[in-house]
């Protein structure tokens, strides 16, 4: 049982990285927008910025999701390429 969990853990760590979890550059922008919203709430209060905050959070979550999907696809392609090169299948 322990070896199965170890193999699953290695596979997850291999596919996911910090860059994928953050979402790359697009994700970093989304995190910045989200923090700007938090600062706006601290400065002006939630009643003043409620509607703009909803719009900002929706946009930042969308950007973050797009960034994560993009980074995951790039990482997956790089890992597949590395596997092909390791196995000697360079033409595929």
What does this structure look like?
There is one protein chain. The chain is mainly alpha-helical. Helices cover 89% and strands 0% of the residues. It has 4 helices and no strands. The chain has helices at residues 2-15, 18-22, 24-44, 46-87. Helix 3 (24-44) runs antiparallel to helix 4 (46-87). The radius of gyration is 19 Å and the shape is elongated.
Gap between N and C termini: 35 Å
How many DSSP-defined strands?
0
How does the overall form come out from the CA principal axes?
elongated
Rounded mean pLDDT is 85
Continuous helix count: 4
List keywords for this structure.
mainly alpha
Summarize it:
The chain is an all-alpha fold.
List strands and helices in order, with pairings.
Elements: H1 2-15, H2 18-22, H3 24-44, H4 46-87
């Amino acid at each position: 049982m322990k070896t199965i969990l170890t193999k699953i853990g290695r596979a997850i760590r291999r596919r996911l990285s910090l860059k994928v979890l953050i979402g790359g550059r697009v994700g970093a922008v989304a995190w910045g927008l989200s923090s700007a919203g938090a600062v706006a709430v601290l400065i002006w209060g939630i009643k003043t910025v409620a509607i703009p905050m909803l719009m900002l959070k929706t946009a930042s979550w969308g950007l973050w999701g797009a960034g994560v999907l993009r980074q995951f696809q790039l990482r997956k392609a790089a890992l597949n390429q590395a596997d092909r090169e390791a196995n000697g299948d360079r033409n595929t």
